[in-house]
């Protein structure tokens, strides 16, 4: 009995397995009645409005049918927006898509062979990125209570500009296309906003800038000066260490207003801040002879930040912005963690920007970081033999890290950066890292000498320098880099004009592309500080140089 039951069970199982088979479940012979489906689908080159669909070739396929589903119709294929029939090949470029939308494609292999059917469908899903017709929001377009946005429209139209934070949408007209800009006012300071462009319900771009911080007057750590009040007294007052010295619109102060003045001593960690909404930035003047300077640094401090101001000197005199230690009465720097210049204009300086010098090994120990961002420098060291822009002439200590970003520098006489130190014994390397990125240079290293350098580090055996996305304009005969054994300099995605004259043996090894024209061919009026691009076909127009000119 048990044997008979076992036999009946085996027969029933075999019948059940046979009944469950579909025509595609067993592929063992070439006489199978259906063409095989594409095994793999890949979507590449995905942009907001286009993509490339590729699939594996199938033996026996005469052609392929490709169907694209509508937005949000993931794998349902109930809303086919486009069909390509009898596609010859295994690649299809698809345009006319929407940004931030999910699409699905399905493909089947077709056959014209008698007695065979088309394959089953194979599908794939992807999502397009958002469209972006906004140009990047430049730091110089961000203020305390306003932001300027710009856009370039390749096709189509715009109907509305929307801003988060309860601000009413702005209706756009034909005059806002194809290229446009709008300054959004009445914003809150130190606040992030989402700004988007629309064509009806279709979003065509989005940016998320944050306004600059602007004191309201209620903060306890803010010392607000009125026009006519003494900036020097405020900076030298130890009670203001850790505070913000806030300068209003139209404020002007002369640091060297008497023959006895040698510079303005900063008592310790402090921010000197101009009004970020000023129609003309507050101005700090320092007209004086050799040995005079704008700022004198303290022996110890955490961070000194100078932002939203104009620093103006006298090119015919020998004063500089920072020149220390200079006199025997200067504080001997022990440790300053960060010296920061942000969104400033610095012009007409008889000597250099920062000069550290010492007569003994212990005179200057360490500035950990010198940072420059979103600044414009012009006319440095025009008549003075000490017109090196950043000069670390120390035997021990110096500046650990120098960072210069999003900045324009033009009109500068001698070496741009001297990181060599001085004397016969240089200890611990005066500069360890230099990073220069997104900067525009022109008419620099103006002294016609084969011994002048963009970066000079002859006695430095531990320097790492990187220069990225920069444009090197006109120079006299200058050398790009000179380093001691173990020092390196790397350039990436940079350009040089035809009047950037160098000594080839001292050029960066690679990463600098030669532009065929001169600085006046590339830029609108470089001598006057206008570095907007005259050459619309310049290959680095969207990626190189100070972003304010893009």
Characterise this structure.
- The protein has 550 residues and is mainly beta.
- 5% of the residues lie in helices and 38% in strands.
- The strands form 8 sheets. The protein has a 10-stranded parallel sheet.
- α2 links the parallel β14 and β15.
- The model is unreliable at 1-30 (pLDDT under 50).
Topology:
Layout: H1 2-20, E1 41-44, E2 51-55, E3 63-69, E4 80-87, E5 91-94, E6 102-110, E7 122-127, E8 147-152, E9 160-163, E10 167-171, E11 179-184, E12 195-199, E13 202-207, E14 222-224, H2 231-236, E15 244-247, E16 252-254, E17 264-265, E18 270-274, E19 283-286, E20 293-296, E21 300-307, E22 310-313, E23 320-324, E24 335-342, E25 345-349, E26 354-357, E27 366-373, E28 376-380, E29 390-393, E30 398-405, E31 408-412, E32 417-418, E33 431-437, E34 440-442, E35 453-457, E36 464-468, E37 471-472, E38 479-483, E39 488-492, E40 494-496, E41 512-514, H3 519-522, E42 523-525, E43 530-533
Parallel strand pairs: 14-15, 15-18, 16-19, 17-20, 18-21, 19-22, 20-23, 21-24, 22-25, 23-26, 24-27, 25-28, 26-29, 27-30, 28-31, 29-32, 30-33, 31-34, 32-35, 33-36, 34-37, 35-38, 36-39, 37-40, 40-41
Antiparallel strand pairs: 1-2, 2-5, 3-4, 3-6, 6-7, 8-11, 9-10, 9-12, 12-13, 42-43
């Amino acid at each position: 009995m048990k044997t008979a039951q076992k036999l009946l069970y085996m027969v029933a199982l075999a019948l059940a397995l046979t009944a469950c088979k579909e025509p595609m479940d067993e592929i063992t012979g070439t006489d199978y009645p259906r063409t095989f489906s594409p095994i793999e689908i890949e979507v590449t080159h995905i942009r907001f409005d286009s993509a490339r669909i590729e699939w594996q070739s199938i033996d026996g396929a005469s052609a392929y049918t490709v169907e694209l589903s509508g937005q949000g119709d993931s794998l349902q294929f109930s809303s086919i927006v486009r069909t390509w029939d009898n596609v010859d090949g295994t690649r299809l470029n698809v345009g006319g898509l929407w940004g931030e939308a999910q699409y699905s494609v399905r493909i089947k292999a077709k056959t014209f062979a008698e007695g065979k059917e088309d394959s089953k469908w194979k599908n794939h899903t992807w999502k397009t990125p958002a469209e972006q017709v906004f140009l990047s929001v430049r730091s110089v377009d961000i203020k305390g209570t306003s932001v300027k946005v710009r856009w370039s429209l390749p096709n189509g139209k715009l109907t509305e500009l929307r801003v988060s934070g309860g601000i009413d949408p702005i209706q756009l007209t034909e005059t806002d296309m194809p290229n446009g800009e709008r300054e959004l006012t009445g914003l809150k300071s130190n606040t992030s906003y989402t700004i988007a462009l629309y064509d009806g319900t279709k979003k065509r771009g989005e940016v998320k800038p944050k306004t600059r911080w602007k004191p309201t007057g209620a903060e306890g750590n803010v010392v607000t000066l009125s026009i006519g009040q003494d900036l020097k007294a405020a900076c030298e007052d130890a009670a203001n260490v850790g505070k913000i010295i806030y300068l209003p619109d139209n404020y002007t102060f002369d640091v060297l207003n008497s023959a006895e003045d040698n510079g303005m001593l900063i008592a310790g960690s402090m921010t000197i801040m101009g009004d970020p909404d000023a129609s003309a930035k507050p101005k700090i003047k320092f007209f004086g002879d050799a040995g005079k300077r704008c700022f004198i640094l303290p022996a110890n401090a955490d961070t000194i930040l100078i932002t939203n101001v104009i620093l103006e000197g006298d090119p015919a005199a020998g004063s500089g912005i920072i020149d220390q230690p200079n006199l025997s009465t200067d504080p001997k720097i022990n440790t300053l963690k960060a010296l920061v210049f942000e969104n400033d204009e610095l012009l007409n300086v008889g000597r250099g920007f920062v000069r550290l010098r010492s007569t003994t090994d212990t005179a200057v120990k360490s500035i950990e970081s010198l940072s420059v961002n979103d600044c414009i420098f012009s006319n440095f060291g025009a008549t003075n033999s000490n017109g090196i822009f950043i000069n670390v002439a120390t035997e021990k200590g110096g500046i650990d890290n120098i960072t210069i970003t999003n900045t324009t520098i033009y009109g500068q006489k001698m070496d741009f950066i001297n990181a060599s130190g001085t004397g016969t014994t240089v200890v611990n390397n005066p500069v360890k890292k230099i990073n220069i990125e997104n900067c525009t240079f022109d008419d620099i290293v103006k002294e016609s000498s084969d011994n002048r350098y963009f970066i000079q580090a002859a006695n430095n055996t531990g320097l790492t320098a990187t220069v990225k996305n920069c444009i090197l304009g006109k120079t006299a005969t200058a050398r790009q880099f000179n380093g001691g054994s173990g020092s390196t300099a790397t350039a990436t995605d940079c350009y040089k004009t035809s009047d950037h004259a160098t000594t080839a043996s001292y050029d960066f090894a690679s990463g600098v592309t030669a532009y065929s024209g001169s600085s006046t061919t590339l830029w609108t009026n470089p001598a006057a500080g206008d570095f907007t691009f005259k050459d619309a076909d310049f290959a680095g127009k969207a990626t190189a140089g100070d972003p304010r000119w893009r």
